[in-house]
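Morning F.,

Quick status update on the modeling queue. The single chain you submitted on Monday has been processed. Sequence for confirmation:
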Amino acid sequence: MIKDLVAIINKEFSGLRAKDYVAEIIQHHRIQASPGFRAAAKVVAKLLTEFGIENETLVYPADGKTYYWASLNPQEWEATEAKLELIEPENRILADFNEIAIALIQRSAPIKETVAEVVLLEDGERREEYKGLNLKGKMVMTKGMIERVYDLAVNEFGAIGIIYDGIWDLPLVRGRCDIPDALQYTSFWWRPEDKKCFGFVLSPKVGEAIRKFFRQGKKVKVKAMVKSRFYDGKI
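Structure tokens below.
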């Protein structure tokens, strides 16, 4: 019975065609409440129409004011360019939004080209970690929870941005060392009263290279730039 079902599926479905459809959809950066999300929805609607399937695209306000139950719809966000460059103790590009979109912490605020010293945090999730640190005008590097690091490092102690090189551990499945070249998807989820900032994501492999500089007692400086905007839009 199962063999008969598989035979029917194999006859009617094309794996290559399915792959092509996925490739067409994923060329758009599909962050909630963004032009890319809307563009991907249009691709799906067009395909469904071509297949003769009736469809409707539902649209809701993305204005940072409208709630659905307890969920606040964020403002629409668009990023067009962002780059993080290591300038001390050596020079190299660490992250480029136009090369890998999730190398930018999603919903990052814009910032003009800025040079900043980087301060390494253990995790940045506990207030005692910040004792004696001067973070004014600096970026912090962390593997800790972005939300907590934002609250402490940025909101309370004056850091201007975050560099994140963490990977969410799945016990007995994977850890940081198992996928050293991967980038963890991260996003800010702003509340109306929040002071927005920016941030970048590094792989564990690149992150460890930067951490080695700190262990060697070297000062780390970066140049950062983000072109993005928030506006009342749709999702």
